[in-house]
Structures are given as structure tokens and as C-alpha cells.
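Repro:
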Amino acid sequence: MNRRDFIAGIPLSGYSLVVLADTLGPAPVVLADTLPPTARAGSLAAEPHMTLIELETDLLVAGGGLAGVLAAIAAARHGARVILVQDRSRLGGNSSSEVKMHVLGANTHNRGWREGGIIEELWLTDAVRNPQRSWELWDLLLYDKVVSEPNITLLLDSALYRATVKGGRIQEAMVRSDHTEQIYRIRAKMFCDATGDSRLALEAGAELRGGREARGEFNESLAMEKADGETLGSSVLFTSRHYDRPMPFTPPAWARKIGKEHLKFRAVNSWEYGYWWVAWGGDKNTIRDDQRIRFELLSIALGVWDYIKNSGDQPSSAAWAMDWIGMIPGKRGSRRVVGDHILTQSDLMNGGQFDDAAAIGGWAMDDHPPAGFDREDLKPNVATRLPGPYNIPLRSLYSRNIGNLFMAGRNISCSHVAFTSARVMATCAVEGQAAGTAAALCLERGIAPRELYRDKALLKQYQQTLLRDDQTIRGVVNEDPADLARRAHVEAPAAKVIDGHVRGDTHLWVAKMEGEPSIELSWPAPRKISEVQLTFDTGFGRMLTLSAQASVNREMIRGAQPETVRDYTVSVRKAGGSWSEVVSVTGNFLRLRRHRFAPVEAEALRVTVKATNGGDTARVFEVRCYG
């Protein structure tokens, strides 16, 4: 069937397709960014102008921020059929071009602990493909990653508004897209709420909590003396550019009048990207009062810019002009879903000692006064540093009373104090990878999330699967029984590549780029090998994100990280035979690389480094081999 016949044969109208060019290979790849061919069309009597679309899937992920994107990708890569629903026209949530908040996490306050896994794949790809730091290209990268997964159906501009529950399990969800005049009835076996506001959980009747707990509830020294319903405020950001002439600014009449007295604790020392402390509304209902919150945030942000441009206190701003301002409040807090474990301050302080550890956090416990900018007498935040990164348990990523509901992002099961750390986007992202991977495993075994936790052998397999995908879990190392490299002989110091660890200089093979350094693994008897997995050094000690803030960008490299191996080969030696090359790569910039090839009975395997991306040493964390 040619592509024209393929498109003409689709039974439903109005579904866009992206067809890759024939030059990409002999078999053109067709990517559907909306509905699979199994979709069925119908109607609803109450909505005569809307088309009802019936869909079935393994996993429905509601919410297309980083938590939802990573949950969908992780589940899809492990074989689950996924529908990802996003109520905006783009993915990324607060990291998207609509809000422009840079993605931060454990590494900010614990250098060397940059999150691995899918978020690292995204960061590295964006650094190479988007050196100009375009937020719209970050949006495009996320879209590309999602629609390129054959197991994901993406529904943009679509909002979930209802769920049907039977026997404590969600049966189906209703999703509405007025943009396409379609309503989707989606039946699934598993669900994941990554909406931030817990909308799916709300519709399903999941147990929720919000606001700030009393100090005595979880014995948290940083908690309030008495519980209340307040949380952190939302923010809008703006960016500005420098021109070759004076650039005047006239604020709207409704902009606030800002003076030095309002900025006692708020530094105005640069203005290319401002300001996270333009925050407001945590003492309001951050969901229902969103329109009011947007107005107040815009009035504050424009008032601050008016102060910068017109007060006379910042004369060097004369040639600067605002070129973008956010129109969507970047929300921090609202509802949280209650799971089998509620993450608390003590969990964060002790590093998260959980047998079901599934992801890491590490941002400080960073609380903000709910009234935000209106409390000019208070510092805009109080950050309490942690002793180090901490683990987040699987039990905080699924609902306590809805048997097939996962959650990921700022709505996971935690106290307000723990939320002030776990809310940042890189942490939300790795929570998404953990939830998506767990959902795929539960689907494969036909079990509920709680059963995954209770089956300790399966729980360990789950953690090892996460590690194989480069998800970081503090204190958990590679013990994968299927990894043939663990039983290989490797001469020191190259033996570090099979010690089970994938971060830290003490677990890194380093060799000078003199000639072509190599690592050799050997076995006493031939082993059937068809896959090699390599983990390279990508400079975990530095920041790596997309930011408009000059101070953040100064320490980043917008391109391939120089430590990373660029060109390499993998060769195998059969018993009594000579070396045969099975993998040859040029232009690599990623940390995790997997290579599959025809099975071969090998008594030895060699990884040879041909070139790096600028570093003078070859650097490899891990070599894995599978049959």
C-alpha cells in the first residue's frame, strides 16, 4: 500500500499525519499524531455537534508536562500502548515556550547528581540540536520524541473531564477537544494522572489532600503550627533583549506601581529573564482563581519592568526591551494524591531509605510565602538544604484507594514540606519515568501497582529495569542477572565498567586519547551476545538545561558535552577466531547507547574509542552485554 492509499483508507476524518520522506529508508515510517486505525466514530445525543471517538488502550496518561511525557515514553518503550492527553497545543508544561521555566532538579544543590534516563536524553539532544536556545524548538523536541514512539497516541488540545470507576478501578475517561469538535471515550487498563492539578484523580474519587499540614501530623519541623489550605503561589516570567538604541516602555494603566520599598528582599540585578519571585495567589484557590492570579501576576511583572525602565534606578536598562511575557501562570501547588506512602520531611532528610525506591530528588525544601509578592516584608523563599539527594518510593506514585491509578509530577503523595522539594520539574520528570515503567510492568503481569510493591522479587526486577534505562536510584546498583558483562573478566582499571555504578569518578574508566584506547571483556567459555549497552560520561557535574537566564547559561555547554565519547566501535571474537566488528558509531552525544546485532557466540568483546567530543580522555561508566 502506498502512502496516498494509506491516508485515503483511514475511516475517520480530521486526523493529521506526519509522513517521513522516502529518503529515510526503504520502508517509509508513518507517524500518527492522533488516533490509531482501531478508533471508532459515534455520537452523543447531548452533544449533537461533537463526534464521539471510542478508544481503547493499555495506559492513559493525562497531562503532557514533563512528568506525563516521560511516563508515556517509558511505558511505550516497554511495550504498552499509550494514549497521552494534553490540554494545551504543546507539551512540556512549565518547561514549554508558554511558561519558559528552566528544568531544575537534584543537581542544582547536589553537584554530580544530574538526573539520568529519559530527561538526560532530552537535555543532551536539546543542547546539540538547539544551541540557539529556542524555547519553541524545545517544544518541538518533546513533540518529536512522543510522536516518534509507535506505541503512543497523542491527543493535544484535549482536556479530561470525567472518569468512570467500578470496583475501585477506573474503567474509562472522557476527554473533550472543542478544537476538533471531538469527544473521546477512552477505556484503559491503567491510568496515570500527570495533570499537576490531579484532575483525573479528582474525577475518579481518589483520596486527595492540599494545603499545608500541621507540624504535628508528620512531626515536621518545617511545617506550620496549624494546618491551612494555602500553598505556593504561581509565577509569570518575561524575557528582554538588548538593542542598539534606547527602547522606551509605557506600562498599561493597570500595571502596579513598584518602588524600592517593594523590592527589599527581591534582587533586580539583571533583566534578560525575570523573575521567579513575581509570584502570587498561593493564598487563593490556584485552580478556580487562575484568571485573577494571571491578572495580578501580569500587573506585578509589568510594574517591575516599569520600575526597571522608568524609575531612574536602573539607567543601564535604557537599551533593553521586553520581548516576551508569559500569559499562563506557572503553577506550583494545588492538589496532591494520597498513596500508600506519604513522602515527608524526615524521608528527605534521611535520603529516602525505601525498599521500593524508584527515582531521586534533591532540590532544597524550598517554601514560599503563599501571598508571594504581596508579602514584601518577607523573603520570597526560605530554602532548607538537604544532606544529599533522596529516593522517592513507588508507593508515593500510585493511589491508595483507586487500584489502577498512578500519579507523577507535583501531585505525588507527599506532605507540603516534602512537596516544596519534589515539585521541581526534573524530579517530576523522573517520577514520570518511574510511574510509566511500573505501569508497563503491571500491564505485562496483569497486576495492580500495590501488588508490584508486595512482590519483592518483582519489585527488585522493576528497579533493575529502571537502572538499565539509566534511571538513577541512590544506593541501588546493577545486579541484573541477564547482564553477561557482570560475569566477564576485565583487566583493572577497566573493571570499573562492570562494578554496577554509573556515576562518580571512582566508578569511571578513564584512558588518555593516545591512539585508540579500548576495553576488553572476556569469558572462560563463549557466550551468545546480541546486544551491547554502553553508558558514557556526559558531565554530570555541570548544569544542563534550557534557560534564558545568563547566570545559568554561563556554566552550560550548548552542544555535545566534551567528555562524551563521539566515535567508537564494538568488536567480538569467536572462540579461536579473529576480531569481527559488529557496531560502528560516529557523532554520538548521548549518555546511554544500546546496540542490537545478529547473535554471535563470543569469547571476548572489545569497545574501542576512536574520538571524543573534545575531551582528551576516553570515559566510560558501564558496559552491559545481553544474549
